[in-house]
User: Which sequence fits this backbone?
């Protein structure tokens, strides 16, 4: 694979001369995260991204599945193939039933040392961030967190991982020099889901963990699942209606709820609105809030600052309502209404209500 | 009980501006603050001190000015402060930073055995959430990330029970001391500095350690040399070229605009027809 012995290139003022020992590292891996019998969708988003990287490098793409022994865990390997993996590394052990840092760090580190991937991707979830930091430190390699773009540097075949920096106003591209694997995490919903092909399959490579419960210091005493009903589910909503500071008062924010109700949408908000306590933190969209990719995003009284934009620009269709024709949100929205949100929102609510009534009669 | 809290001094990112032409960061005049996430860690440590009694040492790696962050922490109630500062640290990424901090913590531990290390969830400038896990790994401490609450600490039995935010729920975990906790944001509220605290903060001798004092022998592990990652370029997000299609109609009343918009929206995106109203309550 490493015919590409390009002359040492300078990056960040430093020479890259990949140690031949490290050139042995090959292939792209995606850590398949799952809890309570469900895979985290960020794994399949990463699988799509991993596929592109693997194809650019001309190497294979693998899923890594760790969990308690049984068909449930194995099922995630099948899923990984369908989302684009060529192979799967499977580690089954009873101590892996619940996520704990120590056994997962050992397991993933052992797998990396045994099969040597050049790139390892994880979701920037609470689990992924916990695990990635420990694994990178154990392996003494570089890790780039919360990437928004992954690419291959054509000159030296290394992973070019881009992420927001300085409060999100700029992006920076980070390279891991002379260390392998190159690790990166990506936040949920930043990348689109990989395509699904039910006919795909592949080989499963099993590897033992070699730990017993008594080796593990931390014990899970209890797990209290969040009740689904009372938690906003922004990242997976089909439609989101968001309000910003342009709505002026918490009372006016009711107009956002009204429209959301008619559309069956989730309610989102910009940061100032959350900080003012008009809505709960879970509803904040943006760099320090949730990343969303709904089919339709309606932004009322939101200026479209870059920190908000990065959380919602993956939406299929964006409608912006703002009384300032020069608001940055009009630079990337699909449709715009220049007007007073306090008037346009109720008008939209009413118009959608009528449209739905007519559609219902017709259907 | 001896608790070490790692705090970082960071530029207040809400006040950072990017030069519109050169795309460089304009740092001048941007105030330095204690990383806001670290205040939740510090407050939790002070809360444990209130309940169980503890000696709280705050630790910061940074330029000499970062001493101000440590004095701030003392005014809130920390007992002792260590600033590790050395030109050799310049350019450290998270791996090199966690190495330097871990080495310093090992030195602090020699003087007074440590039971707990606290870190913030992440910094607002580095924003990686890696330094905490990195320190834990290097010191072989059990790692508890995203802790929302410390339930009990038992220094006799040497164990601790915490609640940890996991995906989709809360884990209640029990582990052995010493361990490292990264504290979730919004879990507590920083107390106010007392008059006595402010007075003490002004006089307290902050320990200033260079790399030797911090016990670092191998200079290849810190600074640029000890950092596997490098920043290859910094750039502005590329502006999207498509401008919004502005909805207008003859009367331009909100009602007509709304009707025009919906007609256009659903004609051009027929798939939305099934999505709208689907989850209507
Ligand atoms: C480190 C960092 C992280 C951040 N993270 C986030 C984040 O996650 N999410 C986020 O949203 N922000 C975030 N921000 C803040 C962000 O920079 C902006 O300040 C914020 O998004 C602005 O919110 P806004 O658009 O509601 O308010 P404003 O910028 O005040 O905009 C209000 C808009 O409403 C319009 N308006 C006023 N009256 C009306 C009316 N009657 N009808 C229609 N329009 C009207 C105005 O023209 C204006 O465009 C972050 C900032 C920093 C520094
Ligand atoms: N230079 C530093 N000095 C002290 N603590 C730090 C430093 N850098 C990071 N930390 C700690 O590590 C946590 C995570 O930082 P980061 O990995 O940069 O997001 C912070 O919340 C701090 O508690």
Assistant:
């Amino acid at each position: 694979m490493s015919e590409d012995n390009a002359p040492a290139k300078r990056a960040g003022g430093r020479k890259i001369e990949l140690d031949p020992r490290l050139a042995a590292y090959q292939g792209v891996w995606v850590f398949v995260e799952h809890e309570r019998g469900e895979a985290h969708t960020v794994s399949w988003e990463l699988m799509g991204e991993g596929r592109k990287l693997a194809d650019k490098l001309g190497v294979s793409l693998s899923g890594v599945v760790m969990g308690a022994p049984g068909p449930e865990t194995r099922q995630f390997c099948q899923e990984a193939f369908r989302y684009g993996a060529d192979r799967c590394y499977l580690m089954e052990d009873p101590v892996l039933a619940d996520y704990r840092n120590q056994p997962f760090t050992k397991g993933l580190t052992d797998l990396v040392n045994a099969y040597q991937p050049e790139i390892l991707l994880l979701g920037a979830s609470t689990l992924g961030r916990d695990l990635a930091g420990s694994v990178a430190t154990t392996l003494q390699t570089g890790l780039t967190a919360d990437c928004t773009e992954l690419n291959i540097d054509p000159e030296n075949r290394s992973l070019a991982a881009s992420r927001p920096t300085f409060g999100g106003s700029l992006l920076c591209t980070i390279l891991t020099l002379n260390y392998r694997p190159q690790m990166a995490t990506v936040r949920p919903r930043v990348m689109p889901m990989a395509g699904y092909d039910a006919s795909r399959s592949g080989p499963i490579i099993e590897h033992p963990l070699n730990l017993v419960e008594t080796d593990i210091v931390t014990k899970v005493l209890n797990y209290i699942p969040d009740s689904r009903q009372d938690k906003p589910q922004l990242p997976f909503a089909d439609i989101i209606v968001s309000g910003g500071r342009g709505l002026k008062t918490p009372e006016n924010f009711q107009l956002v709820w009204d429209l959301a109700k008619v559309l069956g949408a989730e309610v989102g908000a910009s940061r100032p609105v959350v900080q003012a306590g008009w809505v709960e933190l879970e509803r904040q969209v943006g760099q320090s809030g949730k990343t969303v990719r709904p089919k339709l995003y309606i932004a009322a009284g939101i200026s479209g600052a870059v920190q908000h934009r990065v959380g919602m620009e993956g939406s299929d269709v964006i409608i912006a309502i703002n009384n300032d024709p020069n608001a940055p949100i009009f630079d990337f929205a699909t449709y715009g209404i220049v007007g007073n949100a306090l008037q346009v929102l109720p008008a939209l609510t009413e118009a959608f209500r009528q449209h739905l009534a007519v559609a219902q009669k017709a259907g | 009980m001896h608790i070490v809290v790692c705090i970082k001094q960071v530029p207040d990112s809400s006040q950072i501006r990017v030069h519109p032409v050169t795309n460089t960061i304009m740092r001048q005049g941007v105030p330095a603050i204690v990383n806001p996430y670290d205040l939740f860690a510090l407050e939790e440590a002070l809360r444990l001190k209130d309940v169980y009694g503890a000696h709280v040492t705050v630790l910061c790696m940074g330029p000499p000015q970062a001493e101000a962050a440590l004095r701030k922490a003392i005014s809130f109630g920390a007992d002792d402060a260590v600033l590790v500062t050395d030109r050799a640290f310049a350019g450290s990424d998270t791996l090199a930073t966690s190495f330097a901090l871990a080495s310093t913590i090992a030195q602090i531990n020699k003087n007074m055995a440590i039971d707990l290390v606290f870190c913030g969830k992440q910094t607002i400038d580095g924003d990686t959430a890696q330094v905490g896990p990195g320190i834990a790994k290097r010191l072989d401490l059990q790692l508890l990330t995203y802790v929302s609450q410390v339930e009990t600490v038992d220094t006799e039995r040497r164990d601790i029970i915490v609640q940890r935010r996991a995906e989709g729920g809360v884990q209640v975990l029990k582990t052995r001391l010493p361990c490292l906790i990264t504290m979730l944001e919004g879990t507590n509220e920083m107390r106010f500095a007392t008059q006595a605290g402010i007075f003490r903060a002004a006089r307290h001798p902050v320990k200033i350690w260079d790399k030797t004092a911090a016990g670092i022998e191998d200079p290849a592990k810190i600074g640029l040399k000890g950092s596997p990652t490098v920043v290859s370029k910094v750039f502005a997000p590329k502006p999207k070229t498509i401008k919004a299609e502005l909805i207008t109609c003859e009367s331009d009343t909100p009602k007509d605009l709304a009707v025009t918009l919906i007609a256009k929206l659903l004609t051009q995106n027929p798939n939305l027809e099934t999505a709208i109203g689907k989850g209507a309550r």
Remarks:
- The CA atoms of residues 82 and 226 of chain B lie 22 Å apart.
